[in-house]
Amino acid sequence: MAKKEDSPAKLAIIREWDAWSLEHPGDAEIQDCMLFFSFLEEERPDLLNFESSGDKWQDVHAWLLRERRVKD
C-alpha cells in the first residue's frame, strides 16, 4: 500500500520488483536484490533516473527492505 511519503520512483521500483520476482522466484534475499538491481541497470535504466544523495543501490535495497520484499 502506498504511503503519503512514497516517491513515484520508489513506487515504480516496487512495482517492477513485484513483476520481476514472479519470473525469478527465490528466497527474496540480498542476492536476489542485487540481481534485480543489475536488471534495472541493464534493462530498465529509466527507473534509476531518480535523485539520490548517495548510492542508488542503497536506496533501492532500503526501499525493498522497508516494503518487506527482501530480507537481509
Task: Produce the secondary structure layout.
Elements: H1 8-23, H2 30-43, H3 56-66
Describe the structure.
The protein is 57% helix and 0% strand. The protein is mainly alpha-helical and 72 residues long. The protein has one domain (8-66). The longest helix has 16 residues, at 8-23. The model has no long low-confidence stretch (mean pLDDT 89).
Average of pLDDT: 89
Tell me the major beta sheet: none
Overall shape: it is globular
What's the Cα radius of gyration? 11 Å
Overall SS class? mainly alpha
Number of helices: 3
- List unreliable stretches of 5+ residues: none
What is the terminal-to-terminal distance?
Answer: 22 Å
Instruction: Estimate what percentage of residues fall within beta strands.
Output: under 5%
Find the count of extended strands (DSSP E, 2+ residues).
0
The helical percent reads 55-70%
Task: Give the helices and strands as they follow along the chain.
Answer: HHH
The protein's oligomeric status is single chain
Number of domains: 1
What can be said about this structure in brief?
The chain has helices at 8-23, 30-43, 56-66.
